[in-house]
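Below sits our specimen:

——
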Amino acid sequence: MEVGGIVGLIILIADIWAIVNIFGSSASTGTKVIWILAVLLLPVLGLILWLIFGPRSAGRAV
């Protein structure tokens, strides 16, 4: 497998993890939809922005 494929797989796994955590957050439904769209449409940038500014879930400490 090429390096690009491995990096893509890591980004995919991180995005899925972010989406699961967004669903588990206490944010409103509208906010969750916006964050999920950001992560899906901008996989790397959306993930980084969510890690910095996104809603916090009970089990996530950053």
